[in-house]
Amino acid sequence: MSTEQPGADAYGQELARISQHQHMATTTARITVFWALAAVGIGHGQANAIVSKLEAGAVADAPA
Fold first, then answer.
1. What is the pLDDT of residues 23-60, one digit of tens each?
2. Rg (Cα) of the chain, in Å, rounded?
């Protein structure tokens, strides 16, 4: 006898789809920021530090 709720598999699949979409959006945003920073002459190391700070701030400001 299964202990899963009806539709639990569909719910899990939807969560996986949403997670994948969020990951792709985050990756696209990071690449865009790196391109913009490179366009104004900021090197990869400094750009990585800037992006890391932006991400840390976004996480710190996220609602609980």
1. 999 899 999 999 999 999 999 999 999 999 988 887 78
2. 18
Tokens of 48: 């990585």
Domain ranges within the chain, ordered by starting residue = 22-61
Q: Which residues contact 38 (CB under 8 A, 6 or more apart)?
A: 44, 47
| Alpha-carbon separation of residue 46 from 9, 16, 63 (angstroms) | 43, 33, 28
Tell me the DSSP string of 24-52.
HHHHHHHHHHHHHHHHTT--HHHHHHHHH
For residue 64, give the amino acid letter.
A
